[in-house]
Write a structure and sequence with these properties.
It is built from two helices and no strands. The longest helix is centred in the first third of the chain and has 27 residues. It has 59 residues and is an all-alpha fold. The mean pLDDT is 86.
């Protein structure tokens, strides 16, 4: 039981370190313009819709 608690605490510390590193990297990155981000989101949505094909007709 004591070993499980130690492993949980170690994992928690690792996750917090990863979150801190991610937060720092996100702050250092220049902000992406909203227009470009929305545009690429729409392109991705269109590609997903185009590759799924039409729904089968109900008989």
């Amino acid at each position: 039981m004591y070993t499980e608690i130690q492993l949980s605490r170690l994992r928690l510390a690792e996750l917090r370190a990863e979150a801190d590193a991610h937060r720092l990297a996100a702050e250092a990155r220049p902000p992406v313009q909203l227009r470009a981000r929305v545009g690429w989101t729409l392109v991705g949505l269109g590609l997903r819709l185009a590759t799924t094909g039409p729904a089968p007709a109900a008989v």
